[in-house]
Amino acid sequence: MSEQQNFDVIVIGAGPAGYHAAIRAAQLGLKTACIDAALGKDGKPALGGTCLRVGCVPSKALLDSSRQYYNLQHLFGEHGITTKDAKIDVGTMIGRKDKIVKQFTGGIAMLFKANKITPFYGFGQLQPGNVVTVKQHDGSTVELKATNVILAAGSDSIELPFAKFDGENIVDNVGALDFTETPKRLGVIGAGVIGLELGSVWKRLGAEVTVLEALPDFLAAADSEIAKVAAKEFKKQGLDIKLGAKVSNTEIKSKGKAKEVVVTYTDAEGEKTLTVDKLLVSVGRRAATKGLLADGTGVKLDARGMIEVDAHCHTGVNGVWAVGDCVRGPMLAHKGFEEGIAVAELIAGLPGHVNLDTIPWVIYTEPEIAWVGKTEQQLKAEGTPYKVGTFPFAAIARAVAMGEPAGLVKVIAHEETDLILGMHLVGVGVSELVHEGVLAMEFKGSADDLARICHAHPTLSEAIHDAAMAVSKRAIHKAN
């Protein structure tokens, strides 16, 4: 082992939370190191974590490619645009996705260099006394020490004991981003974000997609009215979503030279089987904390393997912090961004805070689904008095002109104070529109505030304006 190297800050993990923490710490004049074990498809180190390599970024690239192809076949005709024998080259599509991933992982490496961050490529483990050992890919080990250590280990896909990943027939999000051809039949276990997004990609490209969801309600985390509208649109698109379907077994069988997966599940009607060519398992993610902590560090893990932290992401051990997917709160890249920055600023003696109540959620299906704040069912359960305003995109000129009239905007405000408690959207471009709600809630805005702000016409954002007006039953473009 080489001589111990000293830093002000060591970050373990270069995913969204980790690389933001490292860059902000370096900007603040702190001598910073960042450790990451991930390798790209070319076998070389690839910074950016799950999000950049095999999550947010590559999935959006495929969603956009598949949307272009789908619209060419189903929407362009309405515009008077016709084409003959449209085809999709899956290899080219995957290659485009890989190029985008490489661009952004390489971009982080350049940012590290520009900010004088020292990268270490290998597996980092926290030792007592804020010492970190790094087992590098060449088998050697280096020892580092810092005044502050930020744990940003991220998360891994949950594997079901009866549906083990083989990378070929039964896959997680990584495998579903790299199919070499469109499967004829794709099964998906879990109707969450990953299942719906990647299911949508391959459905648009011609796959017969069946989604098995164990819960009785569709998108239980979303507002029920929004979920209902989304489910209706997905059904129109041909996504077969079976609710209350609990999978108990999978079996890979040979079919000539090919293989297929037989999935056994139980619903209200009893035990059934589903035969598919590929099976995507997307039942959630767990904190990637295995092997992260040596004995005696004092850092505690909860029953789910998540690092226990306070409201400021401090572990209770002097100089040890944790951020991102390995701590409480939603497993979202942008939540990790903000936590990483906040902790770096706290270390530097500056104010740092993340409001978990205004973290936006987005599902990049078509139509998109997005929300911030509390759902109507949550407010009912709490007994909080509230009022609601909704407005459909079908009455928005821009949405109709775009050929994207599906969906609505829902604004929920407190019955007495009019403060915005939540904004829920399903429709075209709502991944961008939801931030009106985030901003309004951060500044303690009311529905009336939104209703009195001029929105350009014709734009999609007018749906937010009209929904806010509808809260007080004064929407112009709908019957109140």
UniProtKB/TrEMBL annotation:
| Record protein name field | Dihydrolipoyl dehydrogenase
Q: Relay the cofactor remark from the entry.
A: Binds 1 FAD per subunit.
Keywords from the UniProt entry = Cytoplasm, Disulfide bond, FAD, Flavoprotein, NAD, Oxidoreductase, Redox-active center
Q: Which InterPro entries match?
A: Class-I_Pyr_Nuc-Dis_Oxidored, FAD/NAD-bd_sf, FAD/NAD-binding_dom, FAD/NAD-linked_Rdtase_dimer_sf, Lipoamide_DH, Pyr_nuc-diS_OxRdtase, Pyr_nucl-diS_OxRdtase_dimer, Pyr_OxRdtase_I_AS
Q: Name one Pfam family in it.
A: Pyr_redox_dim
Enzymatic class: oxidoreductase
Chemical reaction(s) catalysed? N(6)-[(R)-dihydrolipoyl]-L-lysyl-[protein] + NAD(+) = N(6)-[(R)-lipoyl]-L-lysyl-[protein] + NADH + H(+)
User: EC no.?
Assistant: 1.8.1.4
Q: Which residues form the Pyridine nucleotide-disulphide oxidoreductase dimerisation domain?
A: 359-467
Q: Which organism is it from?
A: Lysobacter panacisoli
Miscellaneous information on this protein: The active site is a redox-active disulfide bond.
Q: Which SUPFAM superfamilies match?
A: FAD/NAD(P)-binding domain, FAD/NAD-linked reductases, dimerisation (C-terminal) domain
Describe the location of the FAD/NAD(P)-binding domain by residue ranges. Answer: 7-340
Membership in a protein family: Belongs to the class-I pyridine nucleotide-disulfide oxidoreductase family.
The encoding gene is: lpdA_1
Q: Which cofactor does it need?
A: FAD
Gene3D superfamilies according to UniProt = 3.30.390.30, FAD/NAD(P)-binding domain (3.50.50.60)
